UniProtKB/TrEMBL annotation:
GO terms for molecular function: copper ion binding; superoxide dismutase activity. Destroys radicals which are normally produced within the cells and which are toxic to biological systems. InterPro entries: SOD-like_Cu/Zn_dom_sf, SOD_Cu/Zn_/chaperone, SOD_Cu/Zn_BS, SOD_Cu_Zn_dom. GO terms for cellular component: extracellular region; Golgi apparatus. This is Superoxide dismutase [Cu-Zn]. It comes from Desmodus rotundus (Vampire bat). Its cofactor is Zn(2+); Cu cation. Its main location: Golgi. Residues 73-205 form the Superoxide dismutase copper/zinc binding domain. Residues 1-18 form the signal peptide. It catalyses: 2 superoxide + 2 H(+) = H2O2 + O2. The keyword Glycoprotein applies.
Length: 232
């Protein structure tokens, strides 16, 4: 497997177009290697009759450097990647927002470091492996509306990855006090971090087994059934 990946890397490197900038070549190479990896790991899992999905969990805690009167947000974020290199699905389950926060929107991003030694402040800037502007970072998950003091949201089609050179495993998920302006704020910070304000809570992404995702999927089915009953 490793030999195949190395040989593929060599071929990809040889085939790179000399007219492209180094950054473009790296981006190009990354896309090709991801594609090869996805194919190889997917095929191996299929041969063994296994599910190739990767799972990760992030246990959200209030930032240690946060003032006591700020919302104390807790909960978890789950990630599932059907095969390495594929788009991510994620599940956000947060609570601890005050009643007056209902209807407000909060930005959630992946930040560069899984370092919580100074609360969420030590997680660094947005994780930005391809040196692009906000909101094109792989962990720019956008805004999440608070309902009943919490956030309970499933998202799919996310470009972050749990594998490969740009894996978010070991990095931080940060929940912000404010809304993400999605790069439309008209200042430099908008193109770096969306002017999303203070860091309320955060966690470090770690790999896990399929059980937490399975439990959450069951809970989602249950809630969907309950909603159907209410509206019927
Ligand atoms: Cu952020
Ligand atoms: Zn960003």
């Amino acid at each position: 497997m490793l030999a195949l990946l190395c040989a593929s890397l060599f071929l990809v490197a040889c085939a790179s177009d000399a007219s492209l900038s180094t950054e473009e070549q790296i981006r190009d190479m990354h896309a090709k290697v991801t594609e090869i990896w996805q194919e190889v790991t997917g095929r191996r899992a299929a041969d063994r009759g296994q599910d190739a999905a990767l799972h990760a969990i992030c246990q959200v805690r209030p930032s240690a450097s946060l003032d006591a009167e700020k919302p104390q947000v807790t909960g978890f974020v789950l990630f599932r990647q059907p095969v390495p290199g594929a788009q991510l699905e994620a599940f956000f389950n947060l609570e601890g927002f005050p009643p007056e926060a209902n209807g407000t929107k909060h930005a959630i991003h992946v930040h560069q470091f899984g370092d919580l030694s100074q609360g969420c402040e030590s997680t660094g800037p947005h994780y930005n492996p391809l040196a692009v502007q906000h909101p094109q970072h792989p962990g720019d998950f956008g805004n999440f509306a608070v309902r009943d003091g919490g956030i309970w949201k499933y998202r799919s089609g996310l470009v972050a990855s749990l594998s490969g050179p740009h894996s978010i495993v070991g990095r931080a998920v940060v929940v912000h006090e404010g809304e993400d302006d999605l790069g439309r704020g008209g200042n430099a910070a908008s193109l770096e971090n969306g002017n999303a304000g203070r860091r309320l809570a955060c966690c470090v992404v770690g790999l896990c087994g399929p059980a937490p995702w399975a439990r959450q999927a069951q809970e989602r089915r249950k809630r969907r059934r309950e909603n159907e009953c209410k509206t019927a």
